[in-house]
Specification:
Radius of gyration: 14 Å
Order of helices and strands: EEHEEEEHEEEE
Helix content: 10-25%
Number of strands: 10
Strand content: 35-45%
Structural class: alpha/beta
CATH superfamily: HesB-like domain
Largest sheet: 5 strands, mixed
Number of helices: 2
Strand order of the largest sheet: 1-5-6-3-4
Number of domains: 1
Shape: globular
Distance between the termini: 26 Å
Length: about 120
């Protein structure tokens, strides 16, 4: 398992996934609400086929990382990224947006070359 911690400054050769304080706070609150141990469990961030531009983001909570996951920790939140997804989202930042009409997690990805009109899918 590849581990990278923003809190300790450890770096791997893979571009890191950054997490904003707002995103970490929201995800940790949701993890705790699900009764998961935040010292072991975390948020899985992945890329899947789908959407009009070809790829879309997915997120879910996992009890623990897989052996080949990149694991990053920011502000107490553990984020798990599988090797295939890492190629698409390395260097991205996970944020949480608060808005009048909607609130939710958002991935700011420097690898995206185009997005669909609704913003739900992308192409690298």
């Amino acid at each position: 398992m590849s581990t990278e911690s923003a809190d300790t400054g450890t770096e791997e050769s893979d571009p890191a996934i950054e997490v904003s304080p707002d995103a970490a706070e929201e995800a940790l609150s949701l993890l705790e609400g699900e009764g998961l141990d935040t010292d072991i469990a975390g948020l899985r961030l992945f890329v899947q086929q789908g959407g009009c531009a070809g790829l879309s983001y997915g997120m879910r909570f996992d009890n623990e990382p897989e052996d080949d996951d990149l694991v990053v920790e920011h502000h107490g939140l553990r984020v798990f990224v599988d090797p295939a997804s890492r190629n698409y989202i390395g260097g991205s930042t996970l944020d949480y947006e608060h808005g009048l009409q909607a609130a939710g997690f958002e991935v700011e990805n420097p690898n995206v070359v185009s997005e669909c009109g609704c913003g739900e899918s992308f192409r690298t």
